[in-house]
Amino acid sequence: LQAGKGAGYARWAKVFNLKQMAQTMIFLREHGIKDIDQLREKTKQSTERFDQLDEKIKTAEKRLVEIASLKKHIINYAKTKDIYADYRKSGYSRKFYESHREAITLHKAAKDAFNELGIKKLPKIKDLSAEYAEVLADKKSAYAQYRNARTEMQDYLKAEKNVEQFLNLTRQEEEKVQEEKRKEETQR
Protein backbone atom coordinates (compact mmCIF):
# COMPACT_ATOMS: atom_id res chain seq x y z
CA LEU A 1 0.00 0.00 0.00
CA GLN A 2 1.13 3.47 -0.80
CA ALA A 3 1.46 5.87 2.11
CA GLY A 4 -1.38 8.32 2.53
CA LYS A 5 -4.04 6.28 0.70
CA GLY A 6 -6.09 5.62 3.81
CA ALA A 7 -8.19 2.79 5.19
CA GLY A 8 -10.76 2.97 2.39
CA TYR A 9 -8.12 2.29 -0.19
CA ALA A 10 -6.74 -0.57 1.87
CA ARG A 11 -10.22 -2.16 2.03
CA TRP A 12 -10.75 -1.67 -1.70
CA ALA A 13 -7.33 -3.15 -2.51
CA LYS A 14 -7.97 -6.17 -0.30
CA VAL A 15 -11.36 -6.85 -1.94
CA PHE A 16 -9.94 -6.26 -5.41
CA ASN A 17 -7.06 -8.66 -4.79
CA LEU A 18 -9.45 -11.31 -3.47
CA LYS A 19 -11.64 -10.97 -6.55
CA GLN A 20 -8.62 -11.25 -8.83
CA MET A 21 -7.44 -14.37 -7.03
CA ALA A 22 -10.95 -15.88 -7.21
CA GLN A 23 -11.08 -15.24 -10.95
CA THR A 24 -7.64 -16.76 -11.31
CA MET A 25 -8.66 -19.87 -9.36
CA ILE A 26 -11.76 -20.26 -11.56
CA PHE A 27 -9.61 -19.87 -14.67
CA LEU A 28 -7.15 -22.48 -13.42
CA ARG A 29 -9.94 -24.90 -12.55
CA GLU A 30 -11.67 -24.42 -15.95
CA HIS A 31 -8.43 -25.17 -17.78
CA GLY A 32 -7.44 -28.11 -15.58
CA ILE A 33 -4.25 -26.53 -14.34
CA LYS A 34 -3.04 -28.09 -11.11
CA ASP A 35 0.44 -26.60 -10.53
CA ILE A 36 2.54 -23.59 -11.43
CA ASP A 37 4.79 -25.55 -13.80
CA GLN A 38 1.78 -26.60 -15.84
CA LEU A 39 0.56 -22.98 -15.87
CA ARG A 40 3.97 -21.77 -17.05
CA GLU A 41 4.01 -24.39 -19.82
CA LYS A 42 0.52 -23.38 -21.02
CA THR A 43 1.55 -19.72 -20.89
CA LYS A 44 4.65 -20.49 -22.94
CA GLN A 45 2.61 -22.44 -25.52
CA SER A 46 0.00 -19.70 -25.87
CA THR A 47 2.72 -17.05 -26.23
CA GLU A 48 4.48 -19.10 -28.92
CA ARG A 49 1.21 -19.59 -30.81
CA PHE A 50 0.51 -15.85 -30.63
CA ASP A 51 4.02 -15.05 -31.87
CA GLN A 52 3.67 -17.49 -34.80
CA LEU A 53 0.37 -15.94 -35.88
CA ASP A 54 1.82 -12.46 -35.48
CA GLU A 55 4.75 -13.40 -37.73
CA LYS A 56 2.39 -14.98 -40.27
CA ILE A 57 0.31 -11.80 -40.44
CA LYS A 58 3.39 -9.60 -40.81
CA THR A 59 4.68 -11.82 -43.63
CA ALA A 60 1.31 -11.64 -45.38
CA GLU A 61 1.21 -7.85 -45.05
CA LYS A 62 4.71 -7.59 -46.48
CA ARG A 63 3.75 -9.79 -49.44
CA LEU A 64 0.59 -7.73 -50.06
CA VAL A 65 2.71 -4.57 -50.26
CA GLU A 66 5.14 -6.29 -52.65
CA ILE A 67 2.32 -7.46 -54.92
CA ALA A 68 0.67 -4.03 -54.97
CA SER A 69 3.99 -2.38 -55.79
CA LEU A 70 4.76 -4.90 -58.54
CA LYS A 71 1.31 -4.40 -60.07
CA LYS A 72 1.81 -0.64 -60.06
CA HIS A 73 5.18 -0.97 -61.78
CA ILE A 74 3.84 -3.39 -64.39
CA ILE A 75 0.99 -1.02 -65.22
CA ASN A 76 3.36 1.96 -65.42
CA TYR A 77 5.74 -0.05 -67.60
CA ALA A 78 2.96 -1.07 -69.99
CA LYS A 79 1.61 2.49 -70.23
CA THR A 80 5.01 4.05 -70.94
CA LYS A 81 6.57 1.32 -73.08
CA ASP A 82 5.75 3.01 -76.41
CA ILE A 83 6.93 6.44 -75.26
CA TYR A 84 10.21 4.99 -74.05
CA ALA A 85 10.67 3.15 -77.36
CA ASP A 86 10.15 6.44 -79.19
CA TYR A 87 12.65 8.10 -76.84
CA ARG A 88 15.25 5.45 -77.74
CA LYS A 89 14.50 5.87 -81.46
CA SER A 90 15.03 9.63 -81.12
CA GLY A 91 18.57 8.89 -80.00
CA TYR A 92 17.81 9.86 -76.40
CA SER A 93 16.98 13.39 -77.55
CA ARG A 94 17.04 16.00 -74.80
CA LYS A 95 14.02 17.77 -76.32
CA PHE A 96 11.99 14.53 -76.42
CA TYR A 97 13.01 13.75 -72.84
CA GLU A 98 11.85 17.18 -71.60
CA SER A 99 8.48 16.83 -73.30
CA HIS A 100 7.91 13.29 -71.90
CA ARG A 101 9.86 13.48 -68.66
CA GLU A 102 7.14 11.98 -66.40
CA ALA A 103 6.46 8.95 -68.60
CA ILE A 104 10.16 8.21 -69.12
CA THR A 105 10.84 8.53 -65.40
CA LEU A 106 7.99 6.12 -64.60
CA HIS A 107 9.31 3.67 -67.18
CA LYS A 108 12.84 3.79 -65.79
CA ALA A 109 11.55 3.37 -62.22
CA ALA A 110 9.57 0.30 -63.28
CA LYS A 111 12.61 -1.19 -65.04
CA ASP A 112 14.77 -0.50 -61.99
CA ALA A 113 12.20 -2.20 -59.73
CA PHE A 114 12.13 -5.27 -62.00
CA ASN A 115 15.93 -5.43 -62.00
CA GLU A 116 16.01 -5.07 -58.22
CA LEU A 117 13.52 -7.93 -57.83
CA GLY A 118 15.39 -10.03 -60.39
CA ILE A 119 12.37 -10.36 -62.66
CA LYS A 120 13.17 -11.40 -66.23
CA LYS A 121 9.63 -12.18 -67.39
CA LEU A 122 6.83 -9.98 -66.09
CA PRO A 123 4.01 -11.81 -64.32
CA LYS A 124 0.46 -11.22 -65.50
CA ILE A 125 -1.66 -8.74 -63.59
CA LYS A 126 -4.43 -11.35 -63.40
CA ASP A 127 -2.07 -13.82 -61.67
CA LEU A 128 -0.88 -11.13 -59.26
CA SER A 129 -4.47 -10.16 -58.47
CA ALA A 130 -5.34 -13.80 -57.74
CA GLU A 131 -2.30 -14.16 -55.48
CA TYR A 132 -3.19 -10.88 -53.74
CA ALA A 133 -6.73 -12.13 -53.05
CA GLU A 134 -5.37 -15.45 -51.74
CA VAL A 135 -2.82 -13.81 -49.43
CA LEU A 136 -5.46 -11.35 -48.20
CA ALA A 137 -7.88 -14.21 -47.41
CA ASP A 138 -5.11 -16.05 -45.52
CA LYS A 139 -4.30 -12.89 -43.60
CA LYS A 140 -7.93 -12.37 -42.62
CA SER A 141 -8.31 -15.95 -41.38
CA ALA A 142 -5.02 -15.70 -39.49
CA TYR A 143 -6.14 -12.43 -37.95
CA ALA A 144 -9.25 -14.05 -36.47
CA GLN A 145 -7.03 -16.71 -34.91
CA TYR A 146 -4.60 -13.97 -33.85
CA ARG A 147 -7.27 -12.16 -31.82
CA ASN A 148 -8.26 -15.39 -30.06
CA ALA A 149 -4.61 -16.30 -29.41
CA ARG A 150 -3.92 -12.83 -28.04
CA THR A 151 -6.85 -13.07 -25.62
CA GLU A 152 -5.79 -16.55 -24.54
CA MET A 153 -2.19 -15.45 -24.04
CA GLN A 154 -3.26 -12.43 -22.00
CA ASP A 155 -5.47 -14.64 -19.80
CA TYR A 156 -2.62 -17.08 -19.15
CA LEU A 157 -0.13 -14.28 -18.48
CA LYS A 158 -2.58 -12.62 -16.07
CA ALA A 159 -3.22 -15.91 -14.27
CA GLU A 160 0.50 -16.62 -14.02
CA LYS A 161 1.20 -13.13 -12.67
CA ASN A 162 -1.62 -13.40 -10.13
CA VAL A 163 -0.51 -16.84 -8.92
CA GLU A 164 3.11 -15.71 -8.59
CA GLN A 165 2.02 -12.57 -6.77
CA PHE A 166 -0.25 -14.58 -4.46
CA LEU A 167 2.48 -17.11 -3.70
CA ASN A 168 4.93 -14.30 -3.00
CA LEU A 169 2.45 -12.54 -0.69
CA THR A 170 1.80 -15.81 1.12
CA ARG A 171 5.54 -16.30 1.65
CA GLN A 172 5.92 -12.74 2.93
CA GLU A 173 3.04 -13.22 5.37
CA GLU A 174 4.55 -16.46 6.62
CA GLU A 175 7.90 -14.75 7.07
CA LYS A 176 6.23 -11.94 9.07
CA VAL A 177 4.51 -14.44 11.34
CA GLN A 178 7.77 -16.31 11.91
CA GLU A 179 9.59 -13.03 12.59
CA GLU A 180 6.98 -12.04 15.17
CA LYS A 181 7.30 -15.45 16.86
CA ARG A 182 11.06 -15.02 17.04
CA LYS A 183 10.65 -11.55 18.60
CA GLU A 184 8.25 -12.91 21.19
CA GLU A 185 10.61 -15.75 22.04
CA THR A 186 13.58 -13.42 22.40
CA GLN A 187 11.60 -11.09 24.69
CA ARG A 188 10.75 -13.93 27.09
Structure description:
The chain is mainly alpha-helical and 188 residues long. The protein contains five helices and no strands. The protein starts with 6 loop residues before the first helix and ends with a helix.
Brief summary:
The chain is an all-alpha fold. It contains five helices and no strands. The chain is 87% helix and 0% strand.
Which helices and strands occur, and which strands form pairs?
Elements: H1 7-30, H2 36-89, H3 94-99, H4 101-117, H5 125-187
List keywords for this structure.
single chain; 188 residues; mainly alpha; 5 helices; elongated
DSSP helical segment count: 5
Q: Major sheet, described briefly?
A: none
* Low-confidence spans: none
Order of helices and strands: HHHHH
Shape: elongated
Q: Beta fraction of the residues?
A: under 5%
How far apart the termini lie comes to 32 Å
